[in-house]
Amino acid sequence: MTNTVIGVGGMAVGRVGDTLVTYALGSCLGLTLYDPETRVGGLLHALLPQSKINPEKARDNPAMFVNTGVPSLFLAVYELGGVKERLVVKAAGCGAPLGAGTMFNTGDRNYTVLKKILWKNNVLLDAEDVGGSKARTVTLDLTTGKVTISSGGERREL
């Protein structure tokens, strides 16, 4: 039984008994995958939408970018025995912590890239808590599959 903290540009997968957590999602994408039958899953904390801005960094750390991190997370969960058709997929973050209309709109772009990848692969989000200006902490309990969002002193299940 392990509690794994995923930093910015990080990713982790685990099995029943494990808990995965990432803190302070602002414009970053937090994505969870969970297979309720095999009780395996993973959590991604992707910083930027497209790896084309730094292909070398993407090779060294695919989790840094949405377009390389999302496929990497799915593959890692498959390697643990997860099956695409059973996966519960949830997204959080993709906000505008500095306010809407900021120069790069990174949160919006992260969300757009995620949705395109999922759409192209016939995957739907089961739940999401995206946008806005609040920071979020995301916890995935791999025993129950429960995803918890903590923000502004409140906790709720996603």
From TrEMBL:
Q: What is its EC number?
A: 3.5.1.44
UniProt keyword annotation of Nucleotidyltransferase present: no
Record field: catalytic activity? L-glutaminyl-[protein] + H2O = L-glutamyl-[protein] + NH4(+)
InterPro entries cross-referenced by the UniProt entry: CheD-like_sf (IPR038592), Chemorcpt_Glu_NH3ase_CheD (IPR005659), Cytotoxic_necrot_fac-like_cat (IPR011324)
Q: Which GO terms describe its biological process?
A: chemotaxis
**What are the GO MF terms of this UniProt record?**
protein-glutamine glutaminase activity
Give the superkingdom in one word: Bacteria
Q: Quote the Pfam families the UniProt record gives.
A: CheD
Transmembrane regions listed in the UniProt entry: none
Keyword set, alphabetical order: Chemotaxis, Hydrolase
Q: Give the protein family.
A: Belongs to the CheD family.
Q: What does this protein do?
A: Probably deamidates glutamine residues to glutamate on methyl-accepting chemotaxis receptors (MCPs), playing an important role in chemotaxis.
Q: Which HAMAP family has this protein been placed in?
A: CheD
The protein, known as = Probable chemoreceptor glutamine deamidase CheD
Query: What organism does the record attribute this protein to?
Result: Eiseniibacteriota bacterium
Taxonomic classification: Bacteria, Candidatus Eiseniibacteriota
The gene name reads cheD
